Amino acid sequence: MKHTLCNFIRKAAAVSLVAILLTSLHSFGQATGYAAGRKLLLRDEGLSQLSYVDFADPAASWFVKVPAGRDLQLIGNGLFMIGTANGYEQYEIKTGKKVKEVTSFPNSVMARKLRNGNILIVGLNAMEKKGIVLAEVDDAGATKKLLNFPDYDYVRLVRETPAGTYLVTANKVVFESDASGKITWKADITGGPEHTNAWQALRMTNGRTVVSGGYAASFQVFGKDGRQLSVITGPADIHPNFFAGFQVLPNGNYVVANWQGHGPNFGASGNQVIEYSPDGKLVWSWKQDAAKFSSLQGVIVLDGLDPAKGYTEGKNGVLEPIKK
Q1: Cα angle vertex 43, ends 40, 46, to 5°?
Q2: Which residues share a beta bridge with 204?
Q3: What residues contact residue 290 under an 8 Å CB cut-off, 6+ apart?
Q4: Using alpha carbons only, what angle is made at residue 256 by residues 250 and 257, rounded to the nearest 5 degrees?
Q5: Which UniProt keywords apply (predicted)?
Q6: How far is CA 248 from CA 151, 179, 265, in A?
Q7: Residue range 156-182: average pLDDT?
Q8: In this structure, are residues 109 and 155 in contact, taking their beta carbons and an 8 Å threshold?
């Protein structure tokens, strides 16, 4: 009986050990394999470069030179659009080939397709207007609507909310305008230098607004009353420097381009794509190849998106197809 009991205990211990090892290996595989198959569309300001990066198939990656400008957006039919200083350009996702160029909007900052199918051109001191200009144009370039905010001397990305309003980043301020140009909400970015250069804002379903704070090197979350509720940044070893374009993933996480500086020599600086959970935990980061990148400013995680469709931010800031 004693011998049988000892054998039973030894076998049970062995089974338990195997179970523990399998569980550990499974967890380790999940941790190390997270994002291993990701596909990224990236805009590199330092090199004036677009790139497509396929982690699972590096041979499919491509790199092309582009004019200076801001923003990235999937617009359907296998294409994406970027803003330039004179309008916008469109490219094939698969190859990086340019298929359209519009240069009739000098002093523009970014361009983005709206839910109604028109294109929003955002400019500064443009179209014979002082300050921020939001012009809605059709495919032929005809202006359908123009909003002007002459009291502001800086603008980066503008986002259309599901309610049809606009969230505008204007240095240390982010504000919301209704469709007529009336400012209905404001919040102040904290931290960073005087010229913080806040980059992008998205509206969540609960009414909160998430902002990538530029030189404040953080996400800042604001309530319906404009009061700051939380700040997300760090850790120091990934060198948070300037939080630029970002995307909310379907799981609620934020993926942001962590820009490092102007010019071609910043490829070794920082981890330039960072992912946080909504409660501020670092989930994942990517250390770029210093020989191929300098300073990333825009990112789209392509996983789960259909290249045949155009996308804009919907509920909770997650990208959803443009129906028109």
Answers
A1: 135
A2: none
A3: 267, 268
A4: 145
A5: Signal
A6: 30, 24, 29
A7: 97
A8: yes
Q: Are 187 and 211 in contact (CB under 8 A)?
A: yes
The predicted model gives 177-202 an average pLDDT of 97
8-state DSSP, 171: B
pLDDT band at 290 (very low <50, low <70, confident <90, very high): very high
More confident residue, 25 or 147: 147
Predicted TM-score (pTM) of the model is 0.89
Q: Phi and psi at residue 26, in whole multiples of 5°? A: -60, -45
Q: What is the model's pLDDT at position 33?
A: 83
Contacts of 261 by beta carbon, 8 Å cutoff, 6+ apart: 46, 241, 269, 295
pLDDT at 133 over 90: yes
Confirm if 297 and 310 have CB atoms less than 8 A apart: no
Residue positions counted in the chain: 324
Peptide bond into 58 cis (omega under 30): no
Phi and psi for 33 in degrees, rounded to 5? -90, -5
CATH number of 45-66+150-321: 2.120.10.30
210 HSE (CA, 13 A, CB side):
29
pLDDT number for residue 184? 98
Question: CA quadruple 211, 213, 218, 224: dihedral positive or negative?
Answer: negative
In angstroms, rounded to a whole number, what is the distance separating the alpha carbons of residues 193 and 241?
12
Distances (CA, A) of 86 to 27, 70, 108, 126, 184: 49, 11, 5, 10, 29
Angle ∠(39,41,44) on CA atoms, nearest 5? 135
Q: Which of these ranges, 21-35, 105-119, 207-221, has the smallest mean pLDDT?
A: 21-35
- End-to-end alpha-carbon separation of the chain, Å? 77
Q: Which of 173, 171, 310, 169 is nearest to 246 (CA)?
A: 169
